[in-house]
# Entry
Amino acid sequence: MTVKSDAVSKPEKVAVRQKKIKGPGGENDDQTLDLEDELLERRLFKKGQKYPTPPLGDGTRAFYESLLEENPHSPIAIKFCLEHGIFGERKHEQLRILYNELRDNGILNAPVGGLTLQTKHAPA
# Structure
């Protein structure tokens, strides 16, 4: 009896994906981002970071930073700042601990439209 192996050795092709970046006039510039640059950027992500860090002038970033400053336990601010890697390593690690607590308690899985408090009712 022979066993077929699914791992047939074939030469792997590594394709370089290029994106054209539009210039200020709507024309395509000669600048391109290849797959290696994207992979390098991904390796620089912090633990728990899913998306690239927005620039300092980004309005969404400013909103969530100020929200977190006003309410340090805001679930949406914690989630955004952690997933976008807004802060340095020390603050990022503190946010990651809070994020994991919120996730474990089910607060981040709340239905859309607001948070609901889950209370345990004693049988009457």
Q: What stands out?
A: The two ends are 66 Å apart (CA to CA). DSSP finds four helices and two strands in the chain. The beta strands are 19-22, 28-33. The chain has a mean pLDDT of 73.
